[in-house]
C-alpha cells in the first residue's frame, strides 16, 4: 500500500487491502512486536460527529504503537463552534500532529482535509459517504472466517445512508464476491456507489427481503436504519423495525453463515442471535485494533519514507 | 432552411454558439452568466431546423468571447456545439467543443451535505464521466440534470 491518506475505498486495490490485512494478522499474532514502534509521534483525533467505537479504537490502536493522541473534544466546545472552516482547522492541527483521523458530518470532508495538509489523513466516516478503515476491519473479519474469494455476501438495512456499506461494497469489487443488497426501496444504494459497482462489473443483485437469498450467503452484513440520516422522520418510521433478524430467522441460513454489523445495533439483530455460532459482530469490533494498528503503521511508514526521499535537483 | 441561413442579423464582434441541442439555449446563457443586465446584445434562436441535429438552438453574444472553462461546461450540455469567434463580422475561429477530464468551479454540487456546500475555501470539482459528471469530493453523480447546477 503506497498511499499517503486513506479517504475512500475506491483508492484501495486488492494488493493494498491484502498488505494491510497481512500486517493486521501479524499484529494480532504478536502485538508486542509492534509496541512502541511509532513512539514520539502524535495522532490527532478530530471527531466532528459523536463516536465511541471508532474514536476509542483508533486511540487504543495508536497507543499500542506508542503513538500519543490528542483529541479536539466535542465540537460544541471547540473553535469549530465559532465558525472556523474545516480547511483552517486541519491546517492548524497539522502543526500539532503527525497524522489525523477525521470524522465529519459532510460527505467529502476527508478529501478536502487531505488537500490542505501534508500529514496522513484517515477518513473515519464522512456523513453518508465512506468509512474505509471500518471496511478494512470488516474484510479482515470476513477473511479470517471465509477468505475473500468465491464469496457470497448479503448486505442488509440502510444501504442509502450507510457509509460502511458504501465502502464495503466498493472494496469487495476487488475480490471474487457476489453481492446481494437487501433493503426497502427507499434505502437502496445511492447512484454514486452503483456507479463504482457498474464500472468494475461487479456481480450485484438487489432484493426487498432476505428470505430468498439467505440460504446462499457466506456473510450477512446487517446495518442500522439510521434515524439521523433521514430528512423525513415519517419515512424513517415507515421502514424502522423491518429487516430485523433473530435466531429463528437464521434457521434457514447455512451453518457457517457469518453475521456481521458495524455497531451500534439498535434492534435489527435480536439478542438471541448473540448466542449462535453465526454472531461475529463483537469479534469484528475487536478486529478494529490490529487492523487500525496495521493501517497507522503503514501510513506513518509511508510518510516517513517520503520525508527521507532525496529530491533530484 | 439550412444551417447557414440565420434568422437574426450578423454580429460585429463576439461569439456564436451553434448546434446547441434544442431547448438548451437558455442553459447556455446561464452558463455564460448572461441575464440581460450586463448590457450585451444577445440573440437566441430556439428549435431552428438543422441539417445535422434536426432541430437546434443558436446563441449569439455581441462583444464577448468565451473562456475555456465556459466552453468546457458548454460541452456537457451541448456536446455537438460549435463555437464561432467573430471579429469585424468575420468568423476568425471555429471550434467544436471537447469534453474536458474535469470541470472546476462551474457547477454546484446538488448534494447539500457535500463539503463544497459548507463555505470551505475550495472550488467545486467534477470528473467528467461517460454520461455525466461526478463530484470529486462526495462522489455524487449528475447526469441529465447538469444544467440545473450551473454556478458561474
Automatic annotation (TrEMBL), chain B:
Signal peptide: none annotated. Contains catalytic and regulatory chains. One of its GO terms (cellular component) is aspartate carbamoyltransferase complex. GO terms for biological process: 'de novo' pyrimidine nucleobase biosynthetic process; pyrimidine nucleotide biosynthetic process. It holds the Pfam family PyrI_C. GO terms for molecular function: metal ion binding; transferase activity. The gene is pyrI. Belongs to the PyrI family. Residues 102-145 form the Aspartate carbamoyltransferase regulatory subunit C-terminal domain. Zn(2+) binds at residues 109, 114, 135, 138. The keyword Cytoplasm does not apply. The keyword Metal-binding applies. Binds 1 zinc ion per subunit. This is Aspartate carbamoyltransferase regulatory chain. Residues 6-97 form the Aspartate carbamoyltransferase regulatory subunit N-terminal domain. Involved in allosteric regulation of aspartate carbamoyltransferase.
